[in-house]
């Protein structure tokens, strides 16, 4: 079974590499058969796809990491990371305070599942929600 501190460390290091962005380094924290699902049910095959998606949606984006919560399951750990996104939209407008929730499953030191939710879609549809 995954030890709790190690699972959180794996997720924290993955997020740091993702924000660099360094998709090659981020991929080292993921299992080869990782299942990644972003908001809207968008499935992504790997860390490179995450970087490409973010590059199309934002001029740049980073996470202000908040809390990490975890629990042990039968054969893996579940880690939740919450916080906010900040950055710049493609049109040059800056944003901050965009809530996110990421859920990870970590097994044998590798991320095997990642689910991502955030406020970006709502903010894109109704820019007035973004109060920077």
Automatic annotation (TrEMBL):
<protein>
    <submittedName>
        <fullName>Nuclear transport factor 2 family protein</fullName>
    </submittedName>
</protein>
<feature type="domain" description="SnoaL-like">
    <location>
        <begin position="11"/>
        <end position="114"/>
    </location>
</feature>
<dbReference type="Pfam" id="PF12680">
    <property type="entry name" value="SnoaL_2"/>
</dbReference>
<dbReference type="InterPro" id="IPR037401">
    <property type="entry name" value="SnoaL-like"/>
</dbReference>
<dbReference type="InterPro" id="IPR032710">
    <property type="entry name" value="NTF2-like_dom_sf"/>
</dbReference>
